[in-house]
Structure to design on (381 residues):
């Protein structure tokens, strides 16, 4: 990119039940971000909300959050998708030259106010899929998991190992909702069965949470922080709507989004040039599947990579050192939280979850059943 855009600050939180309202959570996160940066609402040129009207139970739900976010009667818009798309939209607004700062606000109370697995069922075809009553988010993910395992001859042990690694990382992360310190692959394997081969601990937990992030032009970023994290590249892609037309053992839209982001960032060999990845893997099998599509794992090597520790915090290619979405998935906010976790890594502020070398990070977000739409952002210092 000719012009540069940086992430200059963020606030986020998540829990199984935050015992709050959307408005209160928006205010707390936004007020905290303003205090961190020493600014007030007039320093934000444009605000982008990423929330889900269906889950909020009201249309144009962002209109109720304008006051708590400090943008009432100011420039504001909405992206009804995972908030990593909102981050990309914020970048484009700044790159247009019309704005120097853009704030992304995303949150969901899907821990106790709504059934998190319900919304995907309502994205399916009302004429066929919904009438058959066979597909929902969990059963579709189970088809994807079985397809991926079968393609490379992996056993279900891989799912247990992926989940145990992610949940152990999440237990050490103060920003994660699900806390299971010391969880083992055996404990994952004995958790409640959902849809074969998926079990409870293979799946994301119902989560309340949100994230607010401020992006700025190069000049403004240097005024606001000593630790800017630069957006080096970004890309997105989407696959066909009907699951029956997709090969669920792979994610070509993730691969295409990554190719676009890597080209913009000047990355030719992601396995050699990327230091860590924060991937929105909602189910255990999705982490290696998406890592392969991102070019971070060679196809067919996932089982060996996890067993050797290559994907751990101290490994050659740390995947989800934060714990990822298995530690918490406030729907719509998860991709932005992955970006915030990458910022913590790149600033050297990730505490027990800090990887050794962190100069370039890949961030991934998804929407739709079986990761139908995917967004990829490359961040660096």
């Amino acid at each position: 990119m000719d012009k540069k855009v940086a992430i200059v600050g963020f606030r986020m939180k998540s829990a199984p039940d935050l015992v709050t309202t959307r408005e209160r959570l928006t205010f707390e996160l936004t007020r905290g971000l303003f205090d961190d940066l020493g600014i007030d609402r007039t320093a934000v040129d444009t605000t982008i909300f990423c929330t889900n009207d269906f889950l909020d139970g009201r249309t144009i739900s962002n209109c109720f959050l304008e006051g708590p976010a400090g943008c009432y009667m100011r420039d504001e818009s909405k992206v009804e998708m995972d908030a990593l798309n909102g981050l990309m939209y914020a970048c484009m607004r700044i790159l247009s030259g019309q704005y120097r700062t853009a704030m992304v606000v995303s949150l969901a109370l899907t821990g106790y106010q709504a059934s998190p697995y319900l919304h995907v069922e309502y994205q399916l075809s009302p004429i066929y899929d919904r009438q058959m009553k066979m597909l929902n988010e969990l059963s579709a993910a189970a088809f994807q998991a079985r397809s991926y395992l079968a393609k490379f001859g992996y056993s279900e042990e891989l799912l247990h190992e992926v989940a145990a690694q992610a949940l152990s990382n999440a237990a050490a992360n103060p920003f994660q909702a699900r806390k299971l310190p010391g969880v083992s692959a055996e404990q994952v394997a004995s958790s409640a069965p959902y849809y074969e081969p998926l079990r409870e601990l293979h799946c994301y937990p119902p989560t309340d949470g949100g994230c607010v992030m401020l992006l700025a032009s190069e000049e403004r970023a240097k005024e606001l922080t000593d630790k800017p994290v630069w957006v080096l590249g970004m890309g997105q892609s989407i696959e066909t709507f009907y699951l029956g037309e997709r090969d669920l053992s792979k994610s070509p839209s993730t691969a295409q989004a990554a190719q676009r982001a890597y080209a913009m960032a000047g990355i030719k060999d992601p396995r050699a040039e990327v230091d860590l990845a924060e991937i929105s893997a909602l189910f255990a099998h999705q982490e290696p599947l998406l890592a392969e599509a991102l070019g971070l794992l060679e196809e067919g090597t996932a089982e060996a990579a996890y067993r050797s520790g290559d994907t751990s915090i101290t490994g050659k290619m740390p995947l989800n050192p934060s714990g990822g979405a298995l530690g918490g998935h406030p729907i719509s906010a998860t991709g932005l939280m992955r970006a915030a976790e990458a910022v913590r890594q790149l600033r050297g502020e990730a505490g027990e979850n800090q990887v050794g070398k962190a100069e370039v990070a890949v961030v991934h977000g998804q929407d739709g059943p079986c990761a139908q739409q995917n967004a990829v952002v490359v961040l660096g210092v």
User: Anything to note?
Assistant: Residues 22-37 form the longest helix (16 residues). Residues 130 and 163 are 30 Å apart (CA to CA).
